[in-house]
Design brief:
Layout lengths: L37 H7 L3 H4 L33 E11 L2 E11 L3 H16 L4 E4 L2 E2 L4 E2 L2 E12 L2 E12 L5 E12 L2 E12 L8 H16 L1
Antiparallel strand pairs: 1-2, 2-9, 3-6, 4-5, 6-7, 7-8, 8-9
Keywords: Signal
Protein name: PknH-like protein
Organism: Actinoplanes teichomyceticus
Length: 229
């Protein structure tokens, strides 16, 4: 089980135990070296009980055809590159002083070439993200958000047979309304699949980045890709 601490403890603990199948399967247990199908990706997604006892699947499912934002501020999420079958699953852990979310999205293409083209389109969006953006306070009829600054870091990323990039976003609210949001959007491709795995932790009443965040998102992403091989 992958166990995370409740958000009310302010930070996510790095108390993960990798899934028993990770790195321990025999050659007979590994998926075929050819095309990855939708069923394989759906089965590779983490379930709430595997992440931790306080995690649940939201009652209302997220729009499977909508991606998360890559860039900071109120940026528009990228469009899903065409030609793929889309598989998705959402998980959340809500505490007294914040929340954690995990968005798992797989774009299953007919072949490797189409998957690489899809990843290239997403990388172009990531390359265009501003490294930092400041957003003024916003008050509307349905929401109120204090002013904040959000930074975005783009890194290359490899995990076994999967390669691509990750966007690390850190949002800090103005001092009189302390709070943070740390988000990792990992985009990895192997064979005919593009995986977009997004982990985020939101904290109230603190200006410090979430402890263990770097370890946590790597474990979550790694557990999914190790199931596929």
């Amino acid at each position: 089980m992958l166990v995370t601490a409740r958000p009310r403890r302010v930070a996510v603990a790095a108390a993960f135990a990798l899934l028993a199948v990770a790195g321990c399967s025999s050659d007979d247990d590994k998926p075929d070296a050819g095309r990855i199908d939708v069923t394989t990706m759906r089965g590779a997604f983490l379930q709430a009980a595997e992440v931790g006892p306080t995690w649940t699947a939201p009652t209302a499912s997220a729009d499977a055809q909508r991606m998360v934002s890559f860039c900071g501020g109120a940026s528009t999420p990228p469009s899903i590159p065409p030609g793929a079958d889309v598989v998705s699953a959402s998980l959340a852990d809500e505490g007294e002083r914040g929340a954690q979310t995990l968005e798992q999205l797989a774009l299953v293409y007919p072949d490797d070439k189409a998957a690489r083209a899809g990843q290239s389109l997403l990388r172009a969006v990531a390359d265009g993200c501003a490294p930092s953006v400041s957003v003024p306070a916003a008050v509307t009829s349905d929401r109120s958000e204090p002013a904040y600054t959000e930074t975005v870091e783009l890194r290359d990323l490899s995990e076994g047979a999967w390669s691509g990039f990750v966007l690390i976003r850190h949002k800090t609210y103005e001092a009189r309304h302390p709070g943070t949001a740390d988000t990792a959007v990992a985009v990895l491709t192997s064979r005919n699949v593009v995986l977009v795995d997004t982990y985020a932790i939101y904290q109230l009443n603190t200006s410090q980045a979430a402890a263990g965040f770097e370890t946590d998102w790597k474990k979550l992403v790694g557990s999914v890709v190790q199931r596929v091989g």
